[in-house]
Amino acid sequence: MKNHLRTLLCAAGLLYAGEAAAQTAVPNAGFETWETRPLNNERPQGWLTADDILNQLLTPLTPNATRLVTKSTDTHAGSFAAQLTPKTITTLFIARPVPSILLLGDRFRVTIDELLTNPEAVADISRSRGVPYTARPAQLTFWYKFAGISTDQAQVALALSKGNLKNGGFIVGAASSTTTNLITPGTTTYKQFSVPITYTSTEAPDSLRLGFSVGGNQVFSSSAALTIDDVSFSFTTANASPAVAATLSVYPNPSSNGVFSLASLQKASVATAPLSVTDALGKVVLQQAAAPASAANGRQLDLRGKPAGVYLLRLDTPEGVVVRKLQLQ
Question: Is the whole model's pTM more than 0.85, yes or no?
Answer without folding.
Answer: no
